[in-house]
Design a protein that fits this description.
With 437 residues, this protein is an alpha/beta fold. Helices cover 46% and strands 6% of the residues. A six-stranded mixed beta sheet has the order 1-4-3-2-5-6.
């Protein structure tokens, strides 16, 4: 049957919601400066930056993905009254004059842990700093990339198309330099806004303690770094693991010597392919499916020798399936290995999530997760609450927890330790159903 025809007039269409106007693109205020690459130009930069006032914005560009080293290939600085300076650190043996010019000056960096090691390498070390990424985390911003913070707080968009460029290239293209200069263009203004926000949130002291802690930052040296080879988990047998280790170490030595990223010698997939097949000679190696890369044939003798050494290893010399770890096991194993520790950890995790939500910051910034695991796996022996709290505070402090963190979390973790000692009630067995007879 046909549907009845409506006699009511059509409802007017709702007006379309207008698309928000895109934020304006950030551009350089003072134009693009020349790159500093002579002693005379460096002296001029040092004089200008040293005579200026206030904090200095600093950024560094590396050649990640292209070079083995993490050295800086360009350093950008901006300070009120001095403008922006672009310095080529490769042109100098060190930057001691710049360090002297900036003595006692607060540095503004974004993600300081990325730049501090390569800046130290050229002789630059801050006496105090402000990290805009870390400030964003403490303020509870869900995304703390520089471009996102600039758009959120300053209402402008940043170009990011050259973030993965090979900054060891010489000469550096003008478009890349323009991009690099913009990174410090915004840091002074971001810091000013974030200082106010931290004060309003009552987190100024938290931030100061975090920034002071960063001054001593050194990158973690990974143990058994070869185990991070992509696909190594698919290898069967300890001799195949030994082959992956030997090939990884040989590749790493070549990459370091040539200062190229290891994946440009042979990719991880080639290491796994050769470790699986364990070819006995060059012909078999070059015929192994999946063994490829720029250095596959060039360094074939090195790969064959590494594999021959592995075939000669005794069983005792082969690596274990799982790495030996310093510290507690992974929490997923706790229930089987120590039920009390498992209850402690679960109570601690729930309390930490609640605290982080209350204070509007990521749980990993409330307290380093490894500190929580260590304290819950091996807590102090005492169970007298006040003594336990003091001992936990000392234990966490020895790991590196800051005073503001200890003030927030000690009570919750003390409660988690005590809660772990309480046996959960045993569920009464259900009475048998007579109908089952």
């Amino acid at each position: 049957m046909d549907e009845p025809t409506s006699t009511e007039p059509d409802a007017p269409e709702a007006p379309a919601t207008p698309e928000p106007e895109p934020a304006p693109l950030l551009t350089l205020r003072d134009g693009l400066p020349e790159v500093v690459e002579t002693p005379e130009a460096l002296a001029e930069a040092c004089a200008a930056l040293g005579a200026a006032s206030g904090p200095v914005a600093i950024d560094a560009e590396r050649a990640s993905g292209y070079r083995y080293s993490a050295r800086a290939y360009l350093i950008q600085l901006r300070r009120e009254g001095a403008g922006t300076w672009l310095i080529d650190p490769i042109a100098f043996d060190g930057l001691a004059p710049l360090q002297e010019a900036l003595a006692g000056t607060e540095w503004i960096l974004h993600a300081a842990t990325q730049d501090l090691p390569c800046l130290r390498e050229v002789g630059l070390e801050p006496s105090s700093l402000f990290d805009t990424e870390l400030a964003g985390r403490l303020l509870g911003y869900p995304r703390v990339g520089l471009a996102t913070l600039v758009e959120t707080l300053l209402g402008q968009r940043m170009r990011k198309e050259h973030s993965a460029a090979d900054w060891s290239t010489r000469p550096l293209p003008k478009a890349w330099l323009d991009y690099a200069a913009l990174d410090v263009e915004v840091l002074l203004e971001l810091r000013e806004l974030m200082v106010d926000e931290l004060a309003k949130a009552g987190k100024t002291e938290w931030a100061q303690q975090e920034f002071t802690h960063l001054l001593d930052f050194t990158p973690t040296v990974r143990q058994d770094a070869w185990r991070r080879t992509s696909g190594v988990h698919r290898l069967r047998g300890r001799r195949s693991l030994a082959a992956a280790k030997a090939l990884w170490e040989a590749r790493d030595e070549i990459a370091e010597r040539r200062d190229v990223t290891p994946g440009r010698i042979i990719p991880d997939a080639a290491i796994v392919a050769a470790a699986t097949a364990l070819p006995a000679d060059r012909a078999a190696l070059m015929g192994t499916q999946g063994f490829h890369g720029r250095g596959a044939e060039r360094y074939s003798r090195t790969w064959v020798e590494a594999l021959a050494a592995v075939r000669a290893m005794t069983e005792d010399e082969l690596p274990t399936r799982t790495p030996r770890v310093d510290g507690p096991p992974h929490p997923r194993m706790w229930a089987d290995r120590d039920a009390v520790a498992d209850r402690r950890f679960k109570a601690a995790r729930a309390s930490m999530l609640t605290l982080a939500e209350e204070h509007h910051l990521p749980v990993e910034n409330l307290l380093t997760p490894d500190y929580v695991r260590r304290a819950m796996w091996s807590p102090p022996a005492t169970r007298e609450p006040a003594e336990l709290a003091d001992a936990l505070r000392a234990q966490l402090g020895s790991y590196g927890a800051r005073p503001w963190q200890l003030e927030l979390v000690t009570g919750a973790l003390t409660g988690a330790v005590l809660a772990g000692d309480v046996e959960p009630p045993v569920e009464p067995a259900e009475p048998a159903d007579p109908s089952d007879d």
